[in-house]
Design a protein that fits this description.
about 325 residues; alpha/beta; Arc Repressor Mutant, subunit A; two-stranded antiparallel ribbon
C-alpha cells in the first residue's frame, strides 16, 4: 500500500501514537489464522517479519493482543477491542488507494440465510452491480445462525437473516416483511379444501434443518398451535424441500418468497388452513464496531429503499 501509517484512537497515555498499516494487516491475519506462521503464509511474508510486526504493534499500544493457547494465538480482550477497528481502517485505506484507479474496488462481503440469499438478494446485487461494475461481490449463504457467526467474526460486513437471532455485538435493522406458507403437491388430497388442525397434526411434514430461520418460523407458527409435528424429512435446502414436496404426499412450510415460481407454474400449491397468518420480519445485521465502506453503505441504502412490489410477493 502507498499509505504507510494511520492514527488510531485507542486509550494510550503517550500522545502522537502512530500505527503502521502493515502491522495492522499482520494483526488481522494472525487473528484469523491463529498463528504468525499461518498469517505470514497468507500475506506472502516471512514468519520472522510477521512476528516482528506483531511485537512492534503490541509495543506501540503497550498491551498484549493475544493469549497463547497451546500452539495457537487467541485474541484477548485488548485484541477483540482492536480487531473491528483494524479491519475498518484497512478497508478504508484500500478504498483510498483505489479511489482513482478505476480498476479495483473494495469487495461487497455479505452473508445471507438461504431464503434471502437465493430468492431476494440476486436481483438486488444485479441492480447494485450496474453502478458498481468493478466491485467484486462475495455472498456467503447458510442458515441464520451461520450468518450471525460470519458477521460477528468479521468474515462478512453485513448479514441478512430470517430468524429472531441476535448477538450483543450486532445491530439489527428491520427490513422486509415475509409470510410463511404451508405447501403441498398439486395432487395432494388437501388441495382445494380448508385443512383443519386435526389434519395438520396427523400429516407428515418435510421441514428445513434446525438452526435455519425458516425452521424456527415454522415451529413458532405450527408447533405452538399443533404440538409436536410428524417430521418425516429434514432438509438443508429450500430447493430440495420444494422438490420433495412436489413429488410426494408430505406437507412443507416455507416462505412464500421462495415459491413464487412454483405457484405460478402449478407445481406446488399453498394449502388453506384455519391458522392465523404467519408474518415475520427479515432483518439486516451489522457489527456495532464495524465501519462500513462506501460500497456497502450504497448497497444498504438500496436495500432500505427497495420497492417491495418488485420483489417476490408475500
Amino acid at each position: 500500500m502507498t499509505l504507510k501509517s494511520v492514527q488510531l484512537n485507542l486509550p494510550r497515555t503517550a500522545s502522537g501514537l502512530r500505527l503502521n498499516l502493515r502491522q495492522l494487516k499482520v494483526f488481522v491475519a494472525t487473528a484469523r489464522a491463529g498463528s504468525t506462521r499461518a498469517a505470514a503464509d497468507h500475506m506472502a511474508r516471512s514468519q520472522s517479519a510477521a512476528s516482528a510486526a506483531l511485537v512492534d504493534l503490541e509495543g506501540s499500544l503497550g498491551v498484549r493482543l493475544f493469549d497463547r493457547v497451546g500452539r495457537r494465538l487467541v485474541l484477548n480482550e485488548h485484541g477483540r477491542t482492536l480487531l473491528p477497528r483494524a479491519e475498518s481502517l484497512l478497508d478504508h485505506a484500500a478504498e483510498v488507494e483505489h479511489l482513482f484507479d478505476g480498476e479495483h474496488a473494495t469487495p461487497l462481503r455479505m452473508a445471507a440465510s438461504l431464503t434471502i440469499g437465493e430468492y431476494l438478494l440476486p436481483e438486488l446485487i444485479g441492480r447494485w452491480k450496474i453502478s458498481h461494475p468493478s466491485s467484486p461481490v462475495n455472498l456467503m449463504i447458510g442458515n441464520s445462525g451461520e450468518v450471525v457467526e460470519a458477521v460477528t467474526s468479521f468474515e462478512a460486513d453485513i448479514g441478512f437473516i430470517e430468524g429472531p437471532q441476535t448477538h450483543p455485538d450486532l445491530v439489527l435493522r428491520p427490513w422486509l416483511m415475509d409470510r410463511m406458507a404451508i405447501i403441498a403437491a398439486p395432487h395432494h388430497p388437501s388441495v382445494g379444501t380448508v385443512v383443519d388442525l386435526k389434519q395438520l397434526r396427523q400429516a407428515a411434514w418435510a421441514l428445513r434443518e434446525p438452526g435455519s430461520g425458516t425452521r424456527e418460523a415454522a415451529e413458532r407458527w405450527l408447533v405452538e398451535r399443533l404440538g409436536n409435528l410428524n417430521v418425516d424429512l429434514v432438509l438443508g435446502s429450500t430447493e430440495a424441500l420444494k422438490g420433495v414436496v412436489a413429488s410426494s404426499s408430505l406437507l412443507g412450510c416455507v416462505s412464500v418468497r421462495a415459491i413464487a415460481r412454483e405457484l405460478a407454474q402449478g407445481t406446488l400449491v399453498e394449502i388453506a388452513t384455519r391458522l392465523p397468518a404467519a408474518m415475520r420480519r427479515l432483518t439486516i445485521v451489522v457489527h456495532r464496531e464495524r465501519r462500513l465502506g462506501l460500497g456497502t453503505l450504497d448497497f444498504l441504502s438500496m436495500c432500505s429503499n427497495v420497492d417491495a412490489d418488485r420483489m417476490p410477493r408475500t
